[in-house]
Specification:
The chain is built from 12 helices and 9 strands. By secondary structure, the chain is an alpha/beta fold.
Length: 343
């Protein structure tokens, strides 16, 4: 008999390749995340020189006497213009409180729009932005007291809402009247508080799945599909099991010894004891004329000097057995079988 159940070595040999790939992917993801986190900032970051950054606008504001304060915890906004590039990540109550205390507030693309339009060059159509002239506007459409650029920029009281932030980026600030419009919105006062929501703000507004990048979700889906395909591939059957002769004759004693070593290695003394008891019952049943599956204890007691209770305990006891008890059980079962055969 050949053991086909995988042991620890075979499992490790089969699994080390996928595990190594997984570790490499995880390490690469961590490195990429750390490199991105230590960069110059993301979209609409006044420190970023990237096309989607806003360093050019921050430089223009400072040249015009506006002090730009980048913060993730806007506490003191009195007398300043408050710019919130990501208002949807802030609790509405906190955002309303900041807007009341600030001299002016500019909100970029809050989720209160009534419609959505494509960004394109639009005319102001209102006195509020006449000086800026045509600018690249679009995104969300809002309701408000003063409406400009086809209602993609509105102002109610001291709060200005616009649906598209391209006018603030390094890439588009020099197009049309984007620079003039951005300066008029963010340069209303000598101090500009550029409020980037902190990690605490983001966690309050998003679930765990929302915080996972879309690329990671797609990668996890691909890995799941690959795992299912591999499982189906490894579990496929090419047909019924076909017996074939062994290349050599294996002595019965060697087979028994091999199985015994497997039982011992897996500490399966109790299982081995159950196998010995079942084998003894199967061998004695034909000798005693007992139907297979019936209890032969009474017939064994009649042919030997043992009581039916002791024989039943010997043949059916399922208590835990150690190695020494297994040896004693084998000797006792052998003795009972010899007594039945001689009797």
């Amino acid at each position: 008999m050949t053991a086909v159940s995988p042991d620890a070595r075979r499992i490790w040999t089969a699994a080390r390749g996928p595990l190594l790939i997984g570790v490499v992917v995880l390490f690469a993801a961590i490195v990429i995340t750390l490199l991105r986190g230590s960069g110059e900032g993301g979209a609409l970051d006044p420190r970023s020189f990237r096309p989607e950054g806003s360093h050019a606008l921050a430089d223009l504001l400072e040249q015009n006497g506006v002090r730009v304060e980048l913060t993730d915890d806007a506490f003191s906004v009195e007398g300043a213009t408050l710019f919130v590039p990501q208002p949807n990540l802030i609790e509405p109550e906190r955002l309303a409180d900041l807007s009341r205390r600030a001299a002016a507030t500019v909100l970029l693309a809050p989720a209160t729009g009534v419609a959505r339009v494509e960004p394109e060059t639009r005319q102001p159509g209102c006195p509020l932005a006449d000086r800026a002239g045509a600018a690249t506007m679009g995104g969300f459409v809002y309701e408000g007291e003063q409406r400009c650029y086809d209602s993609t920029l509105v102002r109610t009281g001291s709060v200005t809402t616009l649906g598209y932030g391209g006018i603030f980026t390094n890439r588009d600030i020099d197009s049309e009247g984007n620079a003039a419009l951005a300066l008029s919105l963010l340069g209303q006062h000598e101090r500009l508080v550029w409020y980037v929501p902190s990690a605490a703000d983001r966690a309050q507004q998003k679930s765990l799945t929302d915080l996972i990048p879309d690329g990671w979700k797609f990668a996890a889906l691909q890995l799941g599909i690959a795992a299912v395909v591999i499982a189906l591939w490894r579990a496929r059957r090419l047909g019924r099991v076909v017996p074939e002769p062994l290349p050599v004759v294996v002595r019965a004693a060697e087979t028994v010894e091999g199985r015994a070593r497997l039982y011992r290695r897996s500490h399966a003394a109790s299982h081995a004891a159950a196998v010995l008891r079942q084998a003894t019952r199967d061998r004695l049943a034909p000798l005693l004329g007992v139907p297979p599956g019936d209890d032969p204890s009474e017939e064994i007691a009649r042919r030997t000097s043992r009581s039916a209770t002791s024989v039943r305990a010997l043949l059916y006891d399922d208590g835990p057995v150690d190695d020494r008890g297994l040896v004693a059980l084998a000797a006792e079962l052998d003795a009972v079988e010899n007594e039945v055969r001689k009797g």
